[in-house]
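Summary for the funding panel

The consortium committed to producing paired sequence-structure records for every protein in the target list. Below we show the first two records in order, beginning with the earlier of the two.
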Amino acid sequence: MKKSKIKFLYILIYLFFIFIIVLSVAYILNFFLLKKEAQKENNLLNIVKVEENTLDNNDSENDNNENEESTNSIENTTNTVEEKEDIENPENGRILQVKNLKKQNSDIVGWLEIKDTSINYPVLQGTDNEYYMTHNYKKQKSKKGSIFLTKDYDWNIPSSNLLIYGHNLKNGTMFEELLKYSNKDFYKKHPIIRFTTENEDAEYEIISVFKSRVYYKSEKNVFRYYYFVNANTEEEYNEFIKNAKKASLYDIEATAKYKDQLITLSTCSYHTQDGRFAVVGRKIEKNS
C-alpha cells in the first residue's frame, strides 16, 4: 500500500514537471511570435531608428552639405521666380517655388517648415514607404533619408491626415527637433506648422503632442495613430481626435472638428522600445 502511494506521488511529480516544461515552451514560443509581430509592425510603418553614431565622418559631412543645399534651394528658387515673375504675394511665391522644385523631382509634394527650428525641408512621397528613408530629395543614397509623406495619402480625395515621417538623428537635423515639443514652453513659441504645396500655402495649428510606440497586433484598445490617414466616417475621425487629445503630454486648447484637414509629424523616440513621438495639427482656414 505504501509503495503504491509512493509510485502515485512520483507520477504526480513527473506530470507536474511535464506541465512546467510545456508551459515554458509555450511561453518561449509566444515571446518569439510577439517579437516577430512587432518586427512586422515596424516594417509596415517603414520607420527605422537611425542612431547618430551610424554616420561616419564622411557621411556626416556629405549629409550636412546636402541638408544645407536642400534648405537653401527654396530660397534660391525664390530669387529666380521673383526676378522672372515679379511676385507681390509671398504665398503665391512659395507655391511657385514648390512647382519649380517638382521639376527637379516629381516626388516632391511640398515644403514643411516650423519657424525658428531646423525643420525646413522638402517633403517627398514615393510609391512605397521605404525608398525615401534611405534617399534624399535628389534620389541619392543618404543615411539621413528624407522627410516623406506616407504613400497611402490620396491627393484626389484628399485624405484626412497628412502623415509625415522623418528620422530622429539626434544631431539637430531632420525631425530631431520635433522632440522639443515635449516642453510646453517650446510649443507655445512654435504653435504653427507650415506646409506649402503646389496648390496652397497652408498653416496648421498644433492640437496634440504625444509619445507612443509600435504596438503588437495582439494588443487591444490601443491608439495606433500611425494607421490613420483617411477617415471613412465621422465617428472614425472623432475617435482619432479624442485619442490624440487624451494622449497629449499637456493640455492644448485648440482642437479639430470633422472634415478639418489634419497633419501628423512622426519620428522615432527612445523613451521606450520601438518608441514614437508625434505632433498633430489642424489646418487653419483662411476665412476662419
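The next record, for a separate protein in the list, is shown here:
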Amino acid sequence: MSVIIRNNLPSADVLRDENIFVMRESNAKSQDIRPLKILVLNLMPTKSVTESQFLRKLSNSPLQAEIEFIHMVSHTSRNTDPGHMEQYYTTFGAVRHRKFDGLIITGAPVETLRFEDVDYWGELCELMRWSETNVFSTLHICWGAQAGLYFHYGVNKHSLPQKLSGVFAHELVNPKSPLFFGCDDRIMMPHSRFTEVRESEIRRVEALQVMAISDEAGVAIVKSSDNRRFFIFGHPEYDSDTLAKEYFRDQAAGLGTAVPRHYFPGDDPSNPPTVNWKANASLIYSNWLNYYVYQSTSFDIENIPARSNVND
C-alpha cells in the first residue's frame, strides 16, 4: 500500500517522482483500517535526505504504515531549516504518553564521542527506556545500534584505526530467519563509521543473536532473542550516491579519508558507483515491518507490549 506522512512533507514530492505511493494523513483517516504506527527518531544532520531514504524502504510493503518523525529537544539541528523541524517533527515529550508498533532510531555523526558526552544522551536514554513498554519492536541503525546495545545490554563500541567506508559482503548466520526471507545468500551493505562493536562481546550476552557478519566490516546485524530489538551497524537505507557525497565532502575538508571500498568501480572516484545493496535492503526493512511488527503486534495498540510469535 503506502506510507502515511504528515500533509505537505517535502519528501513526498521526491518519492512520488520515483513512483512510490505516499498517502496524505488526511486521506488515510477516511479508511477503515488500523495502520501501523511507526515512530522515527531522525538523528542524522540532513533530515530531509534521511526522511526520503527511510520512507522508500518502509513503503516497499503492502502494509499501511503511519510514519511520525521526532527529534531531540536537547540538541539543535544546524543543517535543517527550523521551520521544517517545527512543521514536520514532534518531540519525545509530545509522544511519550502514546504507544507505537515500531520505532526506528537512526545513525548520528557523533560516534567518536563517548555516549555520555553526546548532548542528547540523557534524553535518548529516556526514550530507549520508554520503548521497553511503549514500542513493540525497535530498529536501531548504525550509531543508533551502538547506542542501543550499550544502553540495553552494556556492550560498548571501540574505535577503529581509520574510518570504515564502503559496501561490503555479509554472510547470513541464520538465512532461514524471517528477517531474510527473499534475500540472497550473501547480502551487500554500505558502512560508514569510525567505531565498531565486537562479535566476541555480543556473543557473551545470551539475549542477543548475531544475524549477519562480514569478514571486512565485522558484525552487521544483531537482534534480541525475543525479536523486540534489531541492531543494524551499516546503512542499508543509503542512496546510491550517499557514500560518494560523504567521501567528496571529507576530501574538500582535507580529512584525507580513504576511498570507499568496493563502491566505485576500480576504486576510482571518477567512476559512477556500483549499486548492489538496494534489493536486499528493501527486503530486510519490509520483512521487519511484516513479520516482526504487523504479524506480532496487538491489534489494540494499547495492549503493547505483547509476546512476539515469530520463531527463528
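Regarding this second record: The radius of gyration is 19 Å. The chain is about 30% helix and 25% strand.
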